[in-house]
Design brief:
This protein has 157 residues and is mainly beta. It has 2 helices and 13 strands. It has a single domain (5-42, 52-141), classed as Deoxyuridine triphosphatase (dUTPase) (Deoxyuridine 5'-Triphosphate Nucleotidohydrolase, Chain A), CATH 2.70.40.10. It binds deoxyuridine-5'-triphosphate. Deoxyuridine-5'-triphosphate is lined by residues 90, 105-109, 112, 116-118, 148, 150-152.
């Protein structure tokens, strides 16, 4: 069972997010663009650890990120807090898909708190304003064993 948009909004507000009315959707909450990066060097995924490669933050031009086709990393604009007994999923806004772009996202664990990131895949040139809504977070009821305690806990807060 998925939570209503109002319940998701309440969870984010409890974690410090300042949501506009436009972000409050029937089934979830829209997340905005906080920053966009281009990766500049290899990262690593090892059997016993991981490392995120250095990246360069892009600067908006005339009020928008003007993105050519390629792969970027987006940092969302809101702190997210996944309550106990919930799992989070972030999906792209359909307008991104309709413009030949998408987001690739992973599981948002119960107990995670932070300003998360995702892969922004640009299939056709697009202009995206900082602060524009780009994705939607939904929360579903879920059993879980413990809560998130990884190194991304508290990122960006
Ligand atoms: O698209 C996503 C999905 C998740 N997260 C946040 C919430 C999640 O709880 C946390 C860690 O995600 P995950 O467990 O997939 O990362 P990992 O690479 O396995 O790191 P760790 O070893 O810390 O679990 O990152 C994001 O920022 N973006």
């Amino acid at each position: 069972m998925f939570d209503s948009g109002a319940t998701v909004a309440a969870a984010l507000a409890a974690g410090g997010a300042d949501l506009s009315d436009a972000q409050r959707q029937p089934n979830g909450v829209d997340l905005t663009v906080g920053a966009i990066f281009e990766q500049a060097e290899p990262g690593a995924i090892r059997r016993d650890g991981k490392r995120v490669g250095e990246r360069e933050e892009l600067a908006p031009e005339d009020g928008a990120y003007r993105l050519e086709p390629g792969t970027y990393v987006v940092r969302y604009g809101e702190p997210v807090r996944i309550p106990d007994e919930r799992i989070g999923f972030v999906l792209p806004r359909s307008t991104l898909l309709r413009n030949s772009c998408t987001l690739d996202t992973a599981v948002w664990d119960a107990g995670y708190e932070g300003v998360g990131e995702g892969r922004l895949d640009v299939g056709h040139a697009i202009a995206i304003e900082p602060g524009a809504r780009i994705a939607q977070l939904v929360l579903a009821a879920a059993d879980h064993d413990g809560t998130y305690e990884g190194e991304y806990q508290g990122e960006g807060l």
